[in-house]
Design goal:
The protein is 19% helix and 31% strand. It is an alpha+beta fold and 84 residues long. A hairpin with a 5-residue loop joins strand 4 and strand 5. The longest helix has 10 residues.
């Protein structure tokens, strides 16, 4: 999903974002109860990798940002995150 497609949805009054499941269960925002999210990725780095400047060598996580309130949830096992 790109910025312009999400902007177009908002102009038309459609719901922005996508619905997701993690490990077979629907994802719901713990803050507002929203069910639509924007997916992104983030690097997981530790102190040792930061010390040596090799953060890129660490793993990554999937982040789901609530389309309603902006709350971010992190999921370390990206294989379990699926669009519903």
């Amino acid at each position: 999903m790109g910025f312009f497609s999400e902007f177009s949805k908002a102009l038309n009054g459609d719901d922005a974002g996508e619905r997701y499941t993690v490990a077979g269960r629907p994802v719901t925002c713990p803050h507002c109860g929203g069910t639509r999210f924007f997916e992104s990725a983030a690097l997981l780095d530790g102190r040792a990798s930061s010390l040596f400047g090799v953060e890129w060598a660490g793993g990554s996580a999937v982040t789901l940002t609530c389309a309603t309130c902006g709350h971010v949830d992190w999921f370390a096992n990206e294989k379990l995150v699926e669009r519903a």
